[in-house]
Every structure is written in C-alpha cells, then in structure tokens.
C-alpha cells in the first residue's frame, strides 16, 4: 500500500488516525508512506508505517514524481489533498485501487466530496469511512519514547513557525518566558534550523535552556513527553504536544482551531480571536494572532489545572 502525505510534521501527526485505520484494515500489507525523509522517525513511532518513500515539494505542493520501484502497489491512498494533481501522481504508479476524494479533474475516481470547512483529522477519517474503513479521529497519541527527557518538568516554549503569519512576535514570547521564570518555572526554548537569532531574541538574557538547530526526533519526543507544558504557535510542535498528551497552549491566527486545533477538553488550550480567515503562509504576523497578548498566554498556563506548579 502506498500512502501519499508529502507534507510536514504537523500534517503527519494529524494523519496518524487515518494511517492507523489503514493498518488495522490491511494488517497483511506493507504500508509505504510517501513523505519527507526526515519524518521517518515519527512515522515509525505511529506504529502504522513500515517505511518512508522520500517525497517532498516546496511549500505544500504535490511532488513532481515518486521514486516507486517494483510492481504497482495493490492500493494507493491520497492523504495529501483533494486532487487532481495528487491523484494523477498516484495514478502514474498504476495502483490496483486508489482511495481519494472526488474531483472534477479526475472523474474516474468515485470518492466522497471534499469539504473545506472540516478539521484535518476528521477529514481523512471520513475519507476512509466512505470506503468502508472504520477510523477514529481521536486515535492520535504516540507512545512515550524510551529516551530520558533532557529537561524533565520544564515548560517548553517554541517561538518558530513555517510562516510569518503564524509567528507571534519574539518580544511577546520573551515576556511569557520572563513571566514563567518569575513564577519559578524551568523554561526551555526549542527551535529548528535557521532559528538561532529568533531564540536569542526570545531569551533576552533570561535563565533558560536553549535547544537550537532541531533536535533528533527521539530526543525531541522525550523532551515534549516529559514537559510540564508546551507553548507554541499553530505549527507541527503543537501537534507533538497533543500526541504525547502534554498540556499545551497554542496561539492561532489566520486559521481557526476548528480546522487544525487540538481535540476538545481542558488539557490543550487554543487561544484565538475569531475573525475572517487569513493567509496561513503570509510573511507578516496575522492581525488575529497579534490580538493575543502575553498576559493571555500566562493566564492560560497559570490557570491550567494540569500544569504543575514549581
């Protein structure tokens, strides 16, 4: 079985319920996930993927080709988009059966209708349900890594995001860090490649630990699984906190948490000021994101029933 989801970490984690549904429905199949190679570790941690076939494209585009070798897959599943380009990409490897949403550009595919106003986890589970495959959008937790956390009990603050529209200003993150330190919390900053300057701006001389450059997944997973709480924007790291059941506060701006937010309950707090949808890939912080203030984040953390007190 070949499954296409050549996107980022958050996309992979949002697709875990659908991937697990496929594993349960096809236990005898080798499930190959077409995704960026750096996602091999979290894909394996899901317990639903046997191997990753390296595939990616700039932004959220559909890859130009797949380096598929050997006979055609018995089944291909489009968990990437609503077509038609993602459909055509999978059709080129000549699968015996293709599961995908319907699209006028590929009328030969008799799938369910695409709904733009639908939560990402629910969307892919609904696709599989249409094909008679039971799927549970809540089946998203990852097992706790065997490795020890490099900062057990810390509040992890992740200020980065893939786009400026979802990146809260560094000075506001710095204010949150100072507020946490005044309360006696241990604070850790995390960032990916190229975000060292951003982390320096957030740190501003405060007594915090910094993990820059992107941690290996097992160590990153151990850090998040053992954290007291996670603070981040609407990015892949927020989904990682959900995957490990760690209390979190996520800042939303151009995209409603109704589409990409955490599951309902009190453990994961989504801060958002309702308004018209913005461009999630814009260069400047979204106006709705800027309506969130540091005091809003600190209150959500200090009032959180599951965040341990120092």
Write the layout of secondary structure elements.
Layout: E1 2-4, H1 9-14, H2 16-25, E2 32-35, H3 40-45, E3 51-54, E4 75-78, H4 85-91, E5 97-99, H5 120-130, E6 155-158, H6 170-182, E7 187-190, H7 196-203, E8 209-211, H8 217-225, E9 229-233, H9 236-243, E10 248-251, H10 257-260, E11 268-271, H11 287-290, H12 294-302
Parallel strand pairs: 1-2, 1-4, 2-3, 4-5, 6-7, 6-9, 7-8, 9-10, 10-11
CATH top level of the largest domain is Alpha Beta
Could you tell me the number of beta strands? 11
The proportion of residues in beta strands is 5-15%
Point out poorly predicted stretches.
none
- Choose one word for the global shape: globular
By CATH's scheme, which homologous superfamily of the largest domain applies?
Glycogen Phosphorylase B
Provide the CATH topology of the largest domain: Rossmann fold
Number of helices: 12
Mean pLDDT: 96
From N to C, what is the helix and strand string? Answer: EHHEHEEHEHEHEHEHEHEHEHH
> Regarding quaternary structure, how should these chains be classified?
single chain
Query: What structural class do helix, strand and pairing data support?
Result: alpha/beta
Architecture per CATH nomenclature, i.e. the level-2 architecture of the largest domain: 3-Layer(aba) Sandwich
Gap between N and C termini, in Å? 48 Å
Query: What level of helicity do the residues show?
Result: 25-40%
Largest sheet: 6 strands, parallel
């Amino acid at each position: 079985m070949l499954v296409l989801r050549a996107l980022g970490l958050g996309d992979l984690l949002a697709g875990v319920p659908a991937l697990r549904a496929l594993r349960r429905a096809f236990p005898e199949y080798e499930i190959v996930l077409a995704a960026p190679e750096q996602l091999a570790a979290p894909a394996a941690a899901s317990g639903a993927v046997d191997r990753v076939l390296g595939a990616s494209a700039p932004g959220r585009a559909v890859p130009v080709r797949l380096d598929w070798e050997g006979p055609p897959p018995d089944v291909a599943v489009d968990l990437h988009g609503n077509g038609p380009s993602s459909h055509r990409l999978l059709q080129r490897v000549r699968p015996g059966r293709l599961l995908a949403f319907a699209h006028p550009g590929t009328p030969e595919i008799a799938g369910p209708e695409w709904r733009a106003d639908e939560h990402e986890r629910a969307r892919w589970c609904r696709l599989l349900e249409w094909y008679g495959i039971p799927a549970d959008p809540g089946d998203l937790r990852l097992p706790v890594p065997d490795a020890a956390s490099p900062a057990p009990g810390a509040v992890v603050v992740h200020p980065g995001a893939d786009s400026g529209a979802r990146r809260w200003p560094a000075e506001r993150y710095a204010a949150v860090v100072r507020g946490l330190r005044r309360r006696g919390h241990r604070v850790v900053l995390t960032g990916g490649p190229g975000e060292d300057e951003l982390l320096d701006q957030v740190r501003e001389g405060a007594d915090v630990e910094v993990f820059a450059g992107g941690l290996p997944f097992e160590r990153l997973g151990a850090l998040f699984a053992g954290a007291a709480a996670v603070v981040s924007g609407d990015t892949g790291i927020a989904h990682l906190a959900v995957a490990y059941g760690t209390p979190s506060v996520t800042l939303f701006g151009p995209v409603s948490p109704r589409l990409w937010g955490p599951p309902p309950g009190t453990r994961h707090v989504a801060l958002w000021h309702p308004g018209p949808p913005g461009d999630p890939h814009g260069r400047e912080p979204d106006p709705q994101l800027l309506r969130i203030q540091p005091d809003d984040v600190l209150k959500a953390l200090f009032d959180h029933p599951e965040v341990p007190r120092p």
